[in-house]
Amino acid sequence: MSGTVSILQQFANGLKSRSEETRAKAAKDLQHYVTMELREMSQEESTRFYDQLNHHIFELVSSSDANERKGGILAIASLIGVEGGNATRIGRFANYLRNLLPSNDPVVMEMASKAIGRLAMAGDTFTAEYVEFEVKRALEWLGADRNEGRRHAAVLVLRELAISVPTFFFQQVQPFFDNIFVAVWDPKQAIREGAVSALRACLILTTQREPKEMQKPQWYRHTYEEAEKGFDETLAKEKGMNRDDRIHGALLILNELVRISSMEGERLREEMEEITQQQLVHDKYCKDLMGFSTKPRHITPFTSFQSLQPSQSNALAGLLGRQKSVQVDATVFTCISMLARAMGPSIQQDIKELLEPMLAVGLSPALTAVLYDLSRQIPQLKKDIQDGLLKMLSLVLMHKPLRHPGMPKGLAHQLASPSLTNIPEASDVGSITLALRTLGSFEFEGHSLTQFVRHCADHFLNSEHKEIRMEAARTCSRLLTPSIHLISGHAHVVSQTAVQVVADVLSKLLVVGITDPDPDIRFCVLASLDERFDAHLAQAENLQALFVALNDQVFEIRELAICTVGRLSSMNPAFVMPFLRKMLIQILTELEHSGVGRIKEQSARMLGHLVSNAPRLIRPYMEPILKALIVKLKDPDPDPNPGVINNVLATIGELAQVSGLEMRKWVDELFIIIMDMLQDSSLLAKRQVALWTLGQLVASTGYVVEPYRKYPTLLEVLLNFLKTEQNQGTRREAIRVLGLLGALDPYKHKVNIGMIDQSRDASAVSLSESKSSQDSSDYSTSEMLVNMGNLPLDEFYPAVSMVALMRIFRDQSLSQHHTMVVQAITFIFKSLGLKCVQFLPQVMPTFLNVIRVCDGAIREFLFQQLGMLVSFVRSHIRPYMDEIVTLMRDFWVMNNSIQSTIILLIEQIVVALGGEFKLYLPQLIPHMLRVFMHDNSQGRIVSVKLLNAIQLFGANLDDYLHLLLPPIVKLFDAPDVPVVARKAALETVDRLTESLDFTDYASRIIHPIVRTLDQSPELRTTAMDTLSSLVFQLGKKGYTLADEEEDPLIYQHRMLRSNQGETLASGPVETGPMKKLHVSTINLQKAWGAARRVSKDDWLEWLRRLSLELLKDSSSPSLRSCWALAQAYNPMAR
């Protein structure tokens, strides 16, 4: 729980930050944590987290600090809709936001109003009441006496509600028009503009919602009349407004009326104006103007236009003079850019003279922007601009003058511009980043940039500064484009230099994409390698790097990698397809067996990407994939993660597009599921995805019209989307689906509706559980002696003992003696060695049934004894494994002491079954994952025990390594985890390298190990051992790493581990049957002495003591094991 508290405190601290970027990141991280991590916690922990989070949010929104209030609003916005409409939480958030208005900070009010709009969209059942309350409150504030804060808050809220929930807001349109103009005539400009933005939203709403025949022109007429009032001097004096404010408000209103006016009318007006303007306008004014220009005294105004050209030159000269200062104002460059846009090529010469002094100032964002504008507005200067900029970039990035290929070295220095050579070498992060960005974004067509791309790849991709590495990755990918076009062109001779440059730089980019410690850089590299590079990425050596990225720690990077590799499957299928088949199996395994909502959600998304990007791979496996997906839709978890269902539905939609008519046989089964989800109003996102999937299914299979007959409510469900849905995209999708389904005969539809039988038969399903009845025909000792007369006593005694023990074990009324019975059975099995196998059918069914029905107090003890029995019988336990695994799953309770006992039982089973344990591992993996995620034991001791057990799994983990490896890595990568647990996690990875191939997961393991080496000195030895094992494996796979013989540390480590492995593999020495025990004749003589035995009771007591003594001093271990039980339960001794 302490971990959750610390995480919550981190979120709170981030939301309180004065930095806007930090607050936004904290809100985003909070949303990610709630949607991903929190869903895997228990209901109690989740409730506790939300209670504490609500307390933090209340403190934030109640704070006097504006930054903290902004953080509180961001937190509320990030949580809206996450849990699918928790009414209590939404109501609480509504009160928080309501109390923030009005505010003395306009930004806070803007953010709060937007949050109110989002809350109204997610409100579900109480949206209508909420919107009505907020609109009425806002209109009351407008109608009351002027309060600046309330008026501003009111117009902001009205605008957001009109945009977010137009259906409900439309019911309040008339009161809105009655009150909004009060704010339009407010003396404060911000309130006027806010009121007009609300008016705009409402006018758009009325034009969209009303058909032409139902439009009410009085609203628009009223709006126009209000605008006219702004030009009425008498009304203005009454309202006490100054002239500028009054006209500003009127013009704003007119602007909105023009904005929503008929586009058809505007088009006709333009056509009419074009036809009539010459006659009506040009002729009249041209005659007047020409007559006016013939008079001598009026020629001067026209000559002033001619004098404009020298003034431009003077202006540019003045700018040139300003350039000489050390620090140049950015507005100078803005002015030059505006001049170029206004005058175009006519000022080419003046701008050309300015280029050199401009470049001499040094690189800046303003300079880059003006050079870009100049190259577009004055194309004649494009080459000069490119040359000058490249010279500057060469000095900034390579610290030497630009030297074109083939140019002598001395000539480059001679041709270098004197003004540019005086630019100081920029070594700061900002300058280099800007230079790289300029190099990548500016148009340098016609110039060879090979030397730049090589230099960037060699020097900046490995910079210690994140910003430089990020920009270098983007720049390198952009600069490779000309070389790629050159290679992929239709020229007969392909430039080998270009081929080599692309290969070298791409290789270095991919190395950064899998080895850079910062995930943002790795993501940036993969995102920049788009379709342009496919022909080169499809080479085997580059694909190998992408395969490593498929197992990156960060899910978003894995998504990018699988999209890229899937795209390449058509270009190099021989190399890609086998790996993708393996990935497909892993993804389906995660989806089926992980038992963790977040992992299943990610698996479904990965499967969707694989389906859409590698259709050739998917088509042959469509049926098993669809079966796995339908199982997830039909049998969701008790507390299903909405993301799982949404992504599974989306994947089915993608699969329908790929499979086409092959999906036809599944369409009825899928329609029933999708219909249920379309009518589930609890989660809007699920309904949207179900609607899209329905459209994909209908479009791909051609299943049209018929669904209306089979599912008569379908039409009503789809029409409800159009009636009630606020989101325009969802409404559009509903219309698309209606169009795909085709036209429906109204009469047939009425018949279909009439045929629906509303009465549902209440069918009672009787679940009869067939239980195997235990053979109750127990033989007496005498009968067994007759039946087994030919057997030696060494076999007779255990059989007699077992029958007697099992008789007690099956009797629930004697449950107080079951503990002693189990101890006796365990001792007999131990004494018999492998000869005890013959008694398994007699013992195991009863033993397992007792574990299920017994009191919880002794269940842990029974599991412990079961582990001992497994260690005795070894692989002979195989017939009972299904029931044993079921028991472990049923009674594996989180944060209970029984966990440790079950883990020890698993260890015994692994040793007993060896490779056969792999069959039962998938059923246990979900419980193991929950231990790693939610273990609250002291020092994470349960996790440590589980790690020790996993070390014994060996090759059994081969198909499930991708499931267990991430939480193990996360365990040793987390600084707040106890050192003992982190060390055990590292040792587990180290031990598993002996039997499993980790090369595909190198990226996922090595980055955390490197962080551990840097941050945890106490774990460096263990981390280095693990790293050595991984390096040894990577070396075997042909990666460029140190050779084992050349690295004595790796060689010594491997020898040490192999020796330890041999010791463990040998296991415990198997013991045979126990020898006969010593018999004490003295004790027996005392027991059978019959002196002073007179009455019947005396003889009965004598017989009891003799029986106990015979058991106690018996030479048979089986009989002797029953002595303690016989003391507590007299009939046993007979």
Automatic annotation (TrEMBL):
InterPro entries: ARM-like, ARM-type_fold, DDR_Repair_Kinase, mTOR_dom
Keywords on record: ATP-binding, Kinase, Nucleotide-binding, Serine/threonine-protein kinase, Transferase
SMART domains xrefs: DUF3385
One cellular component (GO) term of this entry: cytoplasm
Enzyme Commission number(s) from the entry: 2.7.11.1
Gene Ontology terms for molecular function: ATP binding; protein serine/threonine kinase activity
Catalytic activity, as annotated: L-threonyl-[protein] + ATP = O-phospho-L-threonyl-[protein] + ADP + H(+)
Any Pfam family: mTOR_dom
All copies of domain Serine/threonine-protein kinase mTOR, residue ranges: 704-874
GO terms classed as biological process: negative regulation of macroautophagy; TORC1 signaling
Domain of life: Eukaryota
Coiled coil feature spans: none
Family: Belongs to the PI3/PI4-kinase family.
Protein name as it appears in the record: Serine/threonine-protein kinase TOR
Lineage, opening ranks: Eukaryota, Metazoa, Chordata, Craniata, Vertebrata
